[in-house]
Design a protein that fits this description.
With 272 residues, this protein is an alpha+beta fold. It has two domains: 112 residues; 158 residues, Porin, CATH 2.40.160.20. Helices cover 41% and strands 45% of the residues. It is built from one helix and nine strands, in the order αβββββββββ. Strand 7 and strand 8 form a beta hairpin. The longest helix is centred in the first third of the chain and has 111 residues. The chain is rod-shaped and about 190 Å long.
């Protein structure tokens, strides 16, 4: 009995020793597992933190793009404002070029147009004590050519002469009526606005109803020269005023009691 008891006790003792050994191994294994789990948990924390930081970076990029978009729009607006600011400086040149072209077309159109000029004048006899002859004249002209500032005109002259002469102490009547062709040259310079200045020079060949003046011949020449001021009150009409000197004679050596005078000429011109 004692032998069996010893065997059972020995087995129990061996089992207890094995359990103790197993417990000794289990504790270190549990500790190692806990340490491994903590290490894995700690390693996962930075990854999560980094993953959490990606979203703000993306948001920051989007914010940067949104901020860049207004800046591009502002640059476009600034460029547009610069263009608007520069355009007033360019407009006068464009306007001036357009104006010059329009003026050139207007001048070309004027050159193609026809005109009629009527001059009414009174010339007072001067410079000869014995030849007191006054003239009331009507001239009608048409411009047919223009050479720069010089224009050429042809037309007709109607003359009504009044007065007398006292050559050789003999009183002679100087009244007569004359009619004939006329030719005029005019040099014109623009003054300002609608105002032009010119110098007129004309000559007329007249046939009279009788010898004029007394002891003269039934034909004669009328020469005129003087300055004229013209006002263009419309694109097709103008008024002018001239102060003229004139000389009348028949060009012959005998029976040629020529006479001179000065006076005013009022003109009206119409283009059509």
């Amino acid at each position: 009995m004692s032998g069996e008891c010893d065997k059972k006790c020995g087995h129990r003792h061996d089992r207890a020793m094995e359990k103790r050994r197993a417990a000794r191994f289990m504790l270190p294994m549990a500790a190692l597992g806990l340490i491994a789990w903590q290490s894995a948990a700690l390693a996962a924390v930075p990854a999560v933190a980094q993953a959490g930081q990606v979203v703000p970076v993306a948001q920051t990029a989007e914010k940067g793009r949104a901020a860049a978009a207004p800046s591009a729009q502002q640059e476009e607006r600034a460029d547009a404002m610069k263009g608007e600011a520069a355009s007033p400086h360019m407009q006068p040149r464009e306007v001036s070029e357009t104006t010059v072209a329009a003026e050139a077309k207007t001048e070309a159109a004027k050159e193609k147009r026809k005109d009629v000029e009527v001059q009414l004048e009174y010339l007072d006899g001067r410079f000869f004590k014995k030849r007191n002859v006054d003239l009331y004249n009507v001239h009608v002209y048409r411009q047919y050519k223009k050479l720069g500032a010089l224009s050429l005109h042809y037309g007709l002259t109607f003359e009504r002469a009044t007065g007398y002469t006292t050559e050789d102490d003999i009183w002679r009547d100087a009244e007569a009526v004359g009619f004939g062709p006329s030719y005029m040259m005019r040099w014109t310079k623009h003054v300002s606005g609608k105002l032009d200045g010119s110098v007129d020079a004309s000559g007329s060949l007249l046939a009279y109803n009788h010898a004029h003046p007394g002891n003269g011949r039934a034909y004669g020449f009328l020469w005129r020269i003087g300055p004229r001021l013209t006002y263009h009150y419309t694109d097709r009409d103008s008024l002018s005023l001239a102060y003229l000197f004139h000389h009348s004679s028949n060009g012959m050596g005998t029976h040629n009691p020529g006479y001179n005078g000065v006076g005013f000429s009022l003109g009206f011109t119409h283009w059509y």
